[in-house]
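Why does this matter for the project? Reviewers at the last site visit asked to see concrete outputs rather than summary tables. In response, this paragraph embeds two records directly. Each consists of the residue sequence and, immediately after it, the corresponding structure tokens. Nothing has been edited or filtered.
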Amino acid sequence: MAAADTGGRRDIQRLRDDRAALIQLCLYALDRTQSCGIVTRIEEGLADVGVTALRPDGEQFDPARHEAGGTVSTSDDSLTGTVAETEIVGFRDGDALLRAPVVTVYTAGEPT
């Protein structure tokens, strides 16, 4: 009985590892395609298995969840610290952050 249980756990771990490898391959392909249709299809396929795209445009910047890629000045003080644009889409698999989104953040000042 113990041998069967160990084999079952090994099989489950192999399936988890294979899933993680396939997700990473999809993210790799997603980053390199220039076709909006392919991007959409890959994101839909990932969503079907529980991997969600993160585009935090309009949210308050949070360095624990977002990576700052740059800033853009704004004269609207209410926008300061808000994500202006997602430069690179992030991804989450359930509760696990696979990749933080890289974002541009509004900062106080006159736009140039």
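We now turn to the second protein, recorded in exactly the same manner.
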Amino acid sequence: MRRAGALIVAALVGLAANGAATAPAFAQAYQCRMPAAISVPQVNREGPPRSVPITGYTLALSWSPEFCKGREMQSGQRTQCSGRNGRFGFIVHGLWPDGRNTWPQWCSNPRRLSSAEARQNMCMTPSAKLLARQWAKHGSCMVRKPETYFKVTRILWNSLRMPPTDRLSRDEALTAGQFRDAFIRSNPDWPRSAVGIDLNQRGWLEEVRLCYGKDFMPKRCERRRYGPADAAPMKIWRGM
């Protein structure tokens, strides 16, 4: 766990920092080309504000080909899905604070995500609307500034190596356990109990949900985060 511990120390430093990070995150995308100017939309609160003690965190990684199925030309999804700005595999859906039997959300914070900060993170999360929403709903309950929230998210994201998902997608007998095994081979410091999987009703991969404790060390996922048992069959859409 030495490598993981060093990364967590960096993340905790990021939580305490007031300044922005210096380098953009490249999201392990196949390709990424972002415009010089990014427009950040206004985010309206969806649901009640909820301030509860944080017990841990979840880093949710969305599998872009599955998300983009049928959304290639939808307004608001073109950056991620049209192919004009790059080709994406896993992208960061969000870093979510967890609570006991619930989670904090929509905490009071007047700071908004700037265009410059959004652009720095667009190769990690290729949607300005999603970035703004993750800050307003989740990040506002963790830290004072969006720059700090996304700095920590980048540290965690850039510490990971994603498994060979294209190769796994060609295995017609793939199971959730085999996917977890592949993730652990790529990230030996991770326990399999901390690797959650979210499948849709047809058994296709939608997200990987990685579970962390309050100290940002990997920890066992709660049942709702862990998802299907290891024996469950799963499929991975490679895209067109």
